[in-house]
């Protein structure tokens, strides 16, 4: 039997876009501050999970909600299980959006909204692929289980809880990256660098009052702000002129304001996913690079000089001796993404490091401690730690996924590794598969995130075809 998968998608495209719009309108940023016993990761992620499970109930699937932190939609009753893994949470938003990030807008063939590309759009595409197989009553020999998490963008609490209480498939994919396939994922972890305060720090021409930047450990910061106390008024005019010149020749924009003996400097760069920091413009390290030329108080100078010397324009961790390279998995990436300095409080920087096989978290930690010894810092590994994951190109799963991709696109498939972390790495033979196509702009984690509508439908057809081949 020959199935026109694209035709089946076309017949459901209006329903698909409506469901996606309903899901996008839920602000599902992880919000533990407003979490409750019933909704521990916040009301938004829980509501988004319930919404996607509602789609499954409506369409006649078996669904299960695990404590409002994870759940699944299931079809079939075979002994073997094939897994799909997506997430309904999204990363935070800033003020640099041109539209409401939680109200989908279609313009020039693109659907703009937070989560359109990461990961609500691709997850709904994979869900509709599953629905097409059910609607057509195609014979299948395996159970299909679509598992949804609610904090993939942070600590994976939801999916880890799910794994504690539910059976997990051994094989499957996550529609949370790009085509043709991601069969290798680097190790991912964050290092928090804490600066010891100098009790008798000398004053400078300017005292650093505060330095703030960043939203999440996995996002290159798009804006940064420093507040300086002025101790030498005669130096202000020269600093203002130098800042204007700095902005003129740099990739950043900025503002400089003086009021009541304090200077506030804001730098606007470009946010990006921490897996590819070179595609962002790190506002905080640019601001530090500017301030490093000035005579600051002892604590402020130590903080700023360390950032400028060891973290600015260093996308591979070479300055911190965190670098390694792997033939298949590529190079280490490093990005300083959270900055929290207060003259009378914390003085911290959090770096996100993504490494291939060949180096481990403890070696990186020891190397960083040695490099930054003179800065008098302590360094700790924080949050979830993910080790490198690789499924060989010879695996039948990888071969089938690439075959279907080639048939639908006419493009040659090939294996690829990324610095991003997807739920695919949870499975013994798990990979990431779509939904971004080669040549498309990667706008995940950025303002004005979008998903091309045609690509969304094409991905749905590919998913339907490949899932059916793997479970029939």
UniProtKB/TrEMBL annotation:
Cited CDD domains: M20_PepV
Keyword DNA repair: no
Entry keywords, A to Z: Dipeptidase, Hydrolase, Metalloprotease, Protease, Zinc
Top-tier EC class: hydrolase
Cofactor: Zn(2+)
GO molecular function, one term: dipeptidase activity
Enzyme Commission no: 3.4.13.-
A GO BP entry: proteolysis
Family of the protein in this entry: Belongs to the peptidase M20A family.
Official protein name in the record: Dipeptidase PepV
Organism the protein comes from: Enterococcus avium (Streptococcus avium)
Gene that encodes the chain: pepV
